[in-house]
Amino acid sequence: MERFVRFWRVFLLRIKQAFRFRRTWSMNDPHFTQSQLRELAEQMRNQRRPKDLSESLRQLGMIGERELLQAKAQERGIGFVDIERIPIDDLPHNLIPTETLKCHQVLPVKKEGNNLWIAMADPADTAGINAVKLHTNCRVIPVQAVPGRIAEALDRWA
Asked: Does 145 score more than 90 pLDDT?
């Protein structure tokens, strides 16, 4: 029994480290039931190649894509933007050609002085960042966003 409890404590510690939540996790955490944690542990045990823990949580439906990307952005030290909560009229228009936006899946979300924040599906995409710099001559600050929401916003915008 003690081995079982120790396993779960280590397992929950790994989850906490993966998401870097600021709250205390315990065996009785209301976010995950015991059966969900057992299912997750079983899935991870049966994998030939271990996957990213957060991706396994998403596949089992324990967290959504938005929560996963938000946690990864926090882990990388970059911002996250929820495009659904920004009115489309408030976005900086006419800075970048629509073709460039759609090609690189980027969306300008805020312009302040010479700084331009762009929502990206992959904030590490240097080609997209450089394309935006080329068209705007601004300092580009990438922020993480849900890829599907970027595509929807670009379709509404165009």
From this structure: yes
